[in-house]
Each structure stands twice: as structure tokens, then as C-alpha cells.
Amino acid sequence: MEKKHIALIMGGYTGEAVVSEKSAAVVAQHLDRERYQVYPLHIYPGNWYLEAEDGKHWPVDKNAFTVQKDGELIRFDGVFNIIHGSPGEDGKLAGYFDMLGIPYTTCDALTSSITMNKGYTKAILSGIEDLHLARSLQLFSHGPETATEVLAQLRLPYFVKPNNGGSSIGMSKVKQAEELEEALSKAFQEDRQVLVEEFVTGREFSIGIYRANGKVTVLPATEIISSKEFFDFEAKYSPGVSEEITPGRMDEREVDRVNRIAEQVYRKLNCKGSVRMDYFLEKDTANFFFIEINTVPGQTETSLISQQVRATGKTLKEFYTELIEEMWA
């Protein structure tokens, strides 16, 4: 069997590049080398290159997404995308690969760009049965009246977050009115759009969903118990700051309801590959509240998706093979 050439793309143009490189190292270890010839490609502003086994860098020709290495022209049958943030998660690379006719493992350009915008994503998902959305305001500019407007329309406490950010950078929890101005300034430093949401008290979960063999599979959810006020950058990427339980503590009815909602979210947003959805089960009511969706979730050894795949008894190698084969389905 002739091996398919797979470009494993990593890096990116944001602070999340560090996490992307870690994810890629894990993916590289678990890809089936009998089926695939894997090429690690690093994508940084003005510097796209293939890293050879001897550590040498070979530039990528962006016109065709090919690499000329030792006189050999390398073309790719498909792309395993593990770039968090821009340009891998926000649809820019998806559009580029679409124009070149190269398949990839993640969502298409439209879904990728919409899901980077928390406000627009929520607007699309409203109307799914049993899916609740925290009351929120989407802000497009930061003027002297902004804080007053928020306080008039929403009940404290709030989450204030950059609308397009990832990894909870620039996010604050606001308990008192006088903390709001600083939180808005911090969020507007990260993004030109900011989302202010009423705070939902409840248990936090994260769940992986993917399409393979023609069907959508919902993985076992992970419950996140954080010692921090919320699951922020430090809690996500520092060991010991949050406790993660996979599968999370839900009764059978809750699992059925969450799985039904998760599949509908995946379908309604027209997702591809593996995504991760974060949600709350509200205190006292157990109502499902959607938080956000990640279309290029982390794949490090301790990442939630990796934990959830293992909880099903599947190996990461089998899981990644399914994701790759689905590109050509």
C-alpha cells in the first residue's frame, strides 16, 4: 500500500502557538506510520517550513503548498491541522486549502471563522431543544457609556471575554459594578469585539465530538473542577490547578440529553473532524448552558480529548486514523 503524504501543520500566529507545538508532538507520536508518510510543517508569520529529521528547515512554496527538498518535490494528499487560534482555527488556512483542493482534518472556512466569534456562534445555536444560553451583550466598541449600558441590561456577576479569543486570555469575572471598566479595557486590548455574559453557576464540563465512518460520535464528557474562579489559561495549562474527571459525574438521563445536544450542535454548525464543546449544568436545575466550542482542540497527552478517547477504550492512533480517513470520505 502506497503511503499517503500527510502535512502535520503546527504553530500559528498567536500566543497559542506554544500549545500547538506540544499538541503536534503528541499527534506525531501516535500517527500510523505504516499508512502515512508524515511531514511536520511549521507555520509562522513569514516563515512556513518543513522540519526535516536532521533539524534542517525547508521552505514551503505557498503558491502550491509544496516543498522542494533535496531535489525532490513533496506534495501532500491531506493536512492534519493542529494550529490553535489564527490562521489554523479561524478559517484562513481552510480557505487557502480549499482553493488548492487539499483536504484537511478540521472544519471548513465558514464554520471555522463563525465559531471563533462567540456571539455569532450563540446566535446560530439558539433554538436547539434543551440548549440554554446565558444572557449576553456583544460589544463592538468601548466608549464612556459602555459600562453603564451593560449594567442596565445584564445582572451581575458577569464573564467579560474577547469575542474571538482562545485559551481564556483577556477574560475576567466581574462581581461588582466598579470592576467592570477594568475588565472591559482588558478584553478590548485582545479584541475589537467583546462579549459580556451573565454568570451561570453550575458544574463545568467539556465534551469531544467528531465525525468518522460517516457518523457523528460523542465522547464521554470531562467534568472540570477548578480551584480557580474559572477555567482560565493557568488552570488549562498548569498541572494541578484543576481536577478533571472523565467520564464526568452525570446520571444516565443527563448523559443522554447532553449527547443529543452535542450532536445537534455539531450538525447545526456543520462541523468536521474533532471539536470540543464546553458547557455548564446549572446548579439546582441541571439545565444545559452552552459556553463555547473549540474547532481545533488541544491534543497533548493530558488534553481533554485525549482523556476522552482513552475512556472509550480506543487508542489515539485509531482515533487519528479515523480523523484522517474521514478527509477523503
UniProtKB/TrEMBL annotation:
The keyword Thylakoid does not apply. GO terms for biological process: cell wall organization; peptidoglycan biosynthetic process; regulation of cell shape. The keyword Oxidoreductase does not apply. Binds 2 magnesium or manganese ions per subunit. Its EC number is 6.3.2.4. It catalyses: 2 D-alanine + ATP = D-alanyl-D-alanine + ADP + phosphate + H(+). It comes from the Bacteria. One of its GO terms (cellular component) is cytoplasm. Pathway: Cell wall biogenesis; peptidoglycan biosynthesis. It is found in: Cytoplasm. Keywords: ATP-binding, Cell shape, Cell wall biogenesis/degradation, Cytoplasm, Ligase, Magnesium, Manganese, Metal-binding, Nucleotide-binding, Peptidoglycan synthesis. InterPro entries: ATP-grasp (IPR011761), ATP_grasp_subdomain_1 (IPR013815), D-Ala_lig_Van_CS (IPR000291), D_ala_D_ala (IPR005905), Dala_Dala_lig_C (IPR011095), Dala_Dala_lig_N (IPR011127), PreATP-grasp_dom_sf (IPR016185). Residues 125-325 form the ATP-grasp domain. The active site is at E16, S167, S303. GO terms for molecular function: ATP binding; D-alanine-D-alanine ligase activity; metal ion binding. It is an enzyme of class 6 (ligase). Transmembrane segments: none annotated. Cell wall formation. Belongs to the D-alanine--D-alanine ligase family. This is D-alanine--D-alanine ligase. It comes from Cyclobacterium xiamenense.
